[in-house]
Amino acid sequence: MKKKCFIIFLLFSFSLTAQKKTYVDSVRVSIKPISKNQQLKEILKIPHDKLIGAISTSEKLTNTAVVIALEINDSLSLAKAYSQFSIIYAYKDNREKKIEYSLKSIHIFETINEFELAGKEYGNLGYMLKYEDIDASLFYMRKSIKLLQNSSSKNIDPIYDNYGILQSIIHNNDSAIYYHKKSLNIKKKNQDSIGIPYGYAHLATVHILQKNFDIAKKYIDSSYAIRSKKK
Questions:
Q1: Tell me, what DSSP letter sits at residue 112?
Q2: Which of 122, 129, 149, 182 is the most buried (most CB within 10 A)?
Q3: CATH number, domain containing residue 91
């Protein structure tokens, strides 16, 4: 009986261990037999939500990416790895390092003329600083918008949305509406059925702040209708 209970306990323990294995753990194991170039690609392909779901492992993998990128002299991958580090340190609440790595990333992107990627990184940095240093946040977001507009980026709408949120934080609600509408127009042009409901929700939030509840409800209803249809 004791032996049977012990076996059940072991099986239960193994089951819990298996359940704790994350996407990032799987990447760490799966890249061991492949070439360094492929390892680098796989690490930099880790989605944002998976990256922040296992911070300690992600930090080790990103460090591996930096080492490989430096070894093979791959500037673009190095900049992307630094950007990844910035996200990790943001979630570790390390303000100095998140800014340091984001700026390192931007410097490389600009040096190799990847201005759209530099613009996105400026936007990420600006948005991360919104509750810490609103002046720096606005400064970096404006640089982001300028770079992305000059590069004719088709992915500028999230930056407009985030800039709109900053405008709400400093109580410039009319400006917030202006940028949220700019973003929504791009989403509609791109037939972005995932992004459009977010655009309506952003506009609803600003109108709630202005106590325009009837207008806010129309935007919420529009957002809800699309999300319901998409399930």
A1: T
A2: 122
A3: 1.25.40
Cβ atoms < 10 Å from Cβ of 69: 23
**Residue 88 forms part of a structural domain:** yes
Range of the domain at 88: 18-114
Q: Are 102 and 83 in contact (CB under 8 A)?
A: yes
pLDDT digits (tens, 9 = 90+) for 38-78: 999 999 999 988 999 999 999 999 999 999 999 999 999 99
pLDDT of residue 11: 47
CA count, 13 A, side-chain hemisphere, 104: 19
Token readout for 221 is: 């209803």
- Does the residue 189 lie in any domain? no
pLDDT band at 8 (very low <50, low <70, confident <90, very high): very low
In a domain, 5, yes or no: no
> Is 136 a domain residue?
no
How far apart, in whole angstroms, are the C-alpha atoms of residue 202 and residue 223?
A: 10
